[in-house]
């Protein structure tokens, strides 16, 4: 006689049960909305760490939960624009026109078809030359920040979140993003050399904070491309948590074919495959960010002034 109970005690059955549990947990909770706009620059000068993927999917996850979200694509490759299905041909007005030609940000904002409350400022090929053109302009480090604040102040209904996707470098475009933001989110992949260059990035952020934007802080570190089968991934994750216990989210983003496929369809993984492990992980990361709010700076918390 066959033991039918064994069919319910397999790795696949456990995986399906875990996915069902995570979906139920996400569905049963509503996310708090911030009282003022959170402006978050997503940056890591190391390429291939899931920076644009993280920007797009966190933005989509928060918009799906009811937040009003703006993504500013500041990477000349325009991958965030592609993933959100907004037009970014060379003849379309883009973030380039805002930071170089002083166009109003509101004139270049497009609504993403992805979710009803998700918007994007696209990047196109013209942005590739912006680093050189910015050198001779007045207040070259502050052009995006001034345009963004002017736009946000003009709105009757404010955005809850603004995400700025940076190029994988520490040039003038990234400096503009740091000056415009109040928070920095750093994606770190769980692979060899993950922490390489991170100290230089943190030093640059500290310089921006000291000289150009005293409100800036590293608020969030997200572990990406995690493969639980490898000892290396577990070691990297532990090293990051040891160095950044306050900033590192509990949620980890796994390696996922669905996450990689979604941009080719002009979608985030949140809408492309909402039941995939990658989608659930980004939804959980967004929920964790929303519930955490903005942590007080270390200097403030040590003085008893934190929340």
From TrEMBL:
It comes from the Bacteria. Gene3D superfamilies: P-loop containing nucleotide triphosphate hydrolases. Residues 38-218 form the AAA domain. Belongs to the ParA family. May play a role in septum formation. This is Chromosome partitioning protein. It comes from Compostimonas suwonensis.
């Amino acid at each position: 006689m066959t033991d039918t109970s064994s069919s319910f005690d397999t790795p696949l059955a456990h995986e399906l049960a875990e996915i069902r549990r995570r979906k139920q947990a996400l569905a049963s909770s509503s996310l708090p909305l911030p009282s003022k706009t959170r402006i978050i620059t997503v940056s890591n000068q190391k390429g291939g760490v899931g920076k644009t993927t993280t920007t797009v999917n966190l933005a989509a996850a928060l918009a799906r939960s009811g937040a009003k979200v703006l993504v500013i694509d500041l990477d000349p490759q325009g991958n965030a624009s592609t993933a959100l299905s907004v037009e970014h041909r060379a003849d379309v007005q883009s973030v380039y026109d805002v930071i170089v030609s002083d166009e109003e940000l509101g004139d270049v904002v497009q609504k993403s078809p992805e979710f009803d409350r998700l918007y994007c400022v696209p990047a196109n090929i013209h942005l590739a030359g912006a680093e050189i053109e910015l050198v001779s302009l007045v207040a070259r480090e502050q052009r995006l920040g001034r345009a963004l604040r002017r736009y946000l102040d003009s709105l009757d209904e404010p955005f809850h979140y603004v995400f700025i996707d940076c190029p994988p470098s520490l040039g003038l475009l990234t400096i503009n993003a740091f000056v415009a933001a109040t928070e920095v989110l750093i994606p770190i992949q769980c692979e060899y050399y993950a922490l390489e260059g991170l100290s230089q990035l943190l030093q640059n952020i500290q310089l921006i904070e000291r000289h150009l934007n005293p409100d800036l802080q590293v608020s969030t570190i997200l572990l990406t491309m995690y493969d639980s089968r490898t000892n290396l991934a577990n070691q990297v994750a532990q090293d990051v948590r040891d160095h950044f216990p306050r900033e590192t989210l509990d949620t980890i983003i796994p390696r996922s074919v669905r996450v990689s496929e979604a941009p080719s369809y002009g979608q985030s993984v949140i809408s492309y495959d909402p039941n995939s492990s990658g989608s659930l992980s980004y939804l959980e990361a967004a929920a964790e960010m929303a519930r955490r709010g903005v942590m007080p700076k270390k200097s403030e918390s040590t003085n008893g002034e934190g929340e």
